[in-house]
Write a structure and sequence with these properties.
The protein is an alpha+beta fold. The chain is built from 25 helices and 13 strands.
């Protein structure tokens, strides 16, 4: 990878123009220093957009810096010993608060792997190089001097960026023992940037992975499950296949989601799945999320619920498998793996706190949504699509209250990853249901909007002299089916249909 620093001066000047408090800073504190640090520098060099700005301020006392920031925005103080201000400027506010910090040193007082187990001392006169020593990976241990517009790179992070290498700052055993969440941060960076680990860093990472399940004396996890959830989901959404592979070979799946490993070696009926075992099928399904064809079919950005539904859709196959030799069935079968898979998915979401991201984030996972997707992934396999009721299609795929769009994406990936032994004449279920959906939508378009139900429950009960109960819902579904198929279009026609149906049923 060829990385040029030619654009650095221009980019740093642009940042200062977009964040006027930086220009004010040099006027107020001409002897002070300000640096852009950490991941923002890495992303700047990679020409990647970033919303996460971290600034380091030297040679300015904490109280003076706080006063300066409060005059220009809102400030929260992240612990006096941390020396970090969360700052939201009044002018040109960003989506996320800016970190404005004093230089600091960190030393782990337990080596127990907890990110809170640090003695942190801030010192406005500490050199920027000393501050960078405490960081995790060399690609995150660079800084840009906003006064001179120069890159400061004491650990050759730029060279590692050029070579696509992830290397810890200093001894990897020490870095990972200080904070075990760095193990998963490393995996995420490798997935996001398609980087390889430096040999010693990789060796220590794999040997240290069990620390992710370490507990304190009070049995609380050293690495919070919420931290694990965020690293895992970001990696999976960033690149599902690379994350799947790295979490496997690093041992992270074995420690955190061992249910997935039982898919390895779990056979499938070859006439439907010549691609291989359940593990191979799942990997192939995840790979569909990255194809140009998928991106053309579904233009929206990937989100966590879709990716994880593909990951977990067959998680129960190993526990439900029936074979001709052992169970006397006609072929390998997985009876109930959809419903049991939904139960297992709920357990995993709960155990790993996978709902940790905010609800408006594409990384958010709703336990009910994800379980519903896994439970419904066979809906097109369990019956003939051309005979499926239009009301059923509407309920599952067109109702804004359900995950219909996401279910279609799961069905597409699952179908594309199932390679029949004899593919001649094989038609993907997805294309058939898409055609049915288009017909229903076309009918709705003729009426300028999705048609409202012709009758409500009260009208059905009055027409047929019924009491409240399941029978009312049955008749409502029958009316809706006739309406969506275009056979009735008015309340009067619906009442006539009801009477005819009731009369027909009573004659039997």
């Amino acid at each position: 990878m060829l990385i040029s620093t030619d654009h650095l001066s221009h980019s740093l000047s642009d940042i200062q123009n977009r964040l006027p408090f930086l220009l004010d800073f040099f006027k107020k504190f001409p002897k002070g220093d300000a640096y852009l640090v950490g991941g923002a520098v890495r992303d700047l060099l990679l020409r990647r957009e970033t919303k996460d700005y971290d600034f380091l301020i030297r040679a300015v006392p904490a109280k003076a810096l706080e006063s300066f920031l409060r005059e220009r925005g809102s400030v929260s103080w992240v612990g006096k010993s941390f020396g970090v201000f969360k700052f939201i400027p009044n002018l040109n506010p960003l989506e996320e608060a800016i970190d404005v910090a004093l230089p600091r040193t960190e030393s782990s007082f337990s080596q127990g792997g907890g990110y809170r187990d640090f003695s942190i001392v801030s010192d406005p006169n500490l050199s920027v190089e000393e501050d960078l020593k405490r960081r995790d990976f060399t690609i995150n241990a660079m800084a840009c001097n906003l006064k001179t517009l120069e890159l400061i790179d004491p650990f050759q992070g730029l060279q590692d960026l050029q070579e696509g290498i992830l290397r810890t700052v200093g001894d990897p055993a020490l870095r990972f023992s200080e904070d075990s969440s760095r193990l998963l941060r490393g995996l995420r960076f490798a997935v996001q940037f398609d980087f390889k680990f430096e040999e010693a860093t990789w060796r220590v990472l794999k040997s240290s992975i069990s620390a992710l399940n370490a507990r304190r004396e009070d049995y609380a996890f050293v690495v919070p499950r919420e931290t694990i959830a965020k690293e895992f989901i970001k990696a999976m959404v960033s690149h599902p296949v690379r994350a799947y592979d790295l979490w496997d070979i690093s041992g992270a799946f074995a420690e955190l989601i061992p249910e997935l490993l039982t898919m390895k070696g779990c056979p499938q009926p070859r006439n439907y799945h010549s691609e291989g075992d359940v593990w191979v099928h799942t990997r192939l399904a995840l790979s569909q999320l990255l194809t140009p064809e998928f991106k053309t079919e579904f233009s929206e950005a990937l989100n966590a619920e879709v990716v994880l539904s593909v990951l977990f859709h067959d998680v129960a196959k190993p526990v439900t498998i029936q074979t001709p030799e052992r169970d006397g069935v006609d072929r390998i079968r997985f009876h109930g793996h959809d419903t049991i898979g939904a139960q297992m998915t709920r357990a995993i979401v709960h155990r790993l706190k996978l709902s940790s991201y905010p609800k408006d984030s594409r990384y958010h996972v709703d336990e009910d949504h994800l379980a519903w997707l896994v439970a419904k992934h066979l809906i097109l396999v369990q019956g003939e699509i051309d005979k499926m009721r239009a009301a059923t299609i509407e309920r599952h795929f067109l109702n804004p209250q359900t995950m219909g769009r996401k279910l279609l994406q799961l069905i597409y990936c699952d179908g594309m990853a199932a390679v029949p032994e004899h593919p001649e004449g094989h038609i993907l279920h997805y294309w058939v249901i898409k055609e049915r959906i288009h017909k229903i939508e076309a009918l709705s378009a003729e009426r300028a909007k999705v048609p409202e139900p012709l009758l409500n429950g009260q009208q059905v009960m009055k027409t047929l002299n019924l009491q409240p109960g399941p029978e009312v819902g049955k008749y409502l579904n029958l009316i809706r089916e006739e309406q969506l198929c275009g056979r009735i279009a008015t309340p009067e026609a619906a009442i006539a249909f009801l009477k005819e149906t009731r009369l027909g049923l009573s004659s039997h």
